[in-house]
Amino acid sequence: MQNFNGKVAFVTGAASGIGLGMAQAFVEAGMKVVITDIRKNALDAALASFGEKAADVRGIVLDVTDRKAWSSVADEAERAFGPVHVLCNNAGVNISGRMQEATYSDWDFCLGVNLGGVVNGVQTFVPRMLAHGEGGHIVNTSSMGGLSASKGAGLYCTSKYAVVGLSESLRADLMDQGIGVSVYCPSAVQSELFESTAVVRPAALADSGAAPPPAPDLASRAASPIFATAMTAEEAGRRVLAGIRRNDMRPCRTNRRTRPGSPRWAKRATCRSTRNRSPRPRRPRRSYPIGLSRLWLRHCTVQRGSAHSLQSWPTNQPAASASPRVCHSSQ
Hints:
By secondary structure, this protein is α/β, with parallel strands linked by helices. The chain has helices spanning 17-28, 40-48, 67-81, 104-114, 116-132, 154-174, 193-200, 218-222, 225-229, 233-246, 263-274, 294-298, and strands at 8-11, 32-37, 57-61, 86-89, 136-141, 179-184, 300-302, 327-329. It has one domain (8-263): NAD(P)-binding Rossmann-like Domain (Rossmann fold), CATH 3.40.50.
């Protein structure tokens, strides 16, 4: 997508944090935006933050785990602004603690929001996007925890890894349908994720073996080094918008401390440029059959029963010989 003016976005978990940052970036780009959240008071405060552009924003209360509610909310969004072009499945919670101490309620709550919310959004809006035929884009919020697991975050990482896999497969499925798909994997962001998790957890899933979230004291958290150097929600929203423009699979997730132009990045760049290294000897270039790239060969295997091997192929093989019978995808 290149032209956002007049288009419609639907963002979940948008009363604060990354979701609100996305909504603000979309409104600045000229879009109409539907923001949803399960917290009515927080949603009202978010709507008030748009000031003069509040007319371009509609707030709707939504529990992303409620499949029946999704359909009615989607209808309301279309009645307000028309067909949705950008879907951002952003709502999420954070469960911390050792996996052996987790309860079924911990699993149901974490997967229900972080993964089930994405599934429900996809199931609700992809058919509508295909039906209106105007193209669009889907952004699913994962995390660095969806790319690198860590101790004490097993439930969270499980849900976020699943979102990455879902998004990559969905991107391939919709590639020829005019709908792009991105998965956003930010590192530290200044948000209220810990506090909101405690607020939105339902009483039916209150039985928990996980470590309790920190008390909702944003002032003390804001003074911590991690929070102070974390990316702001507004910057996260702008990066998502830029990623949609480029149709990135994974919008940039660089921490602002080491992004190009920052003092730390400049220092590292200087060290790299002034470091005294002896040149490495160049490895001899290996010749492969015409039509097969090095990357492709890494994901191919020789067809069973073939008398040839990749190593024994002649380097001057004509293009016609690089046929599908030689190798097939191993994935």
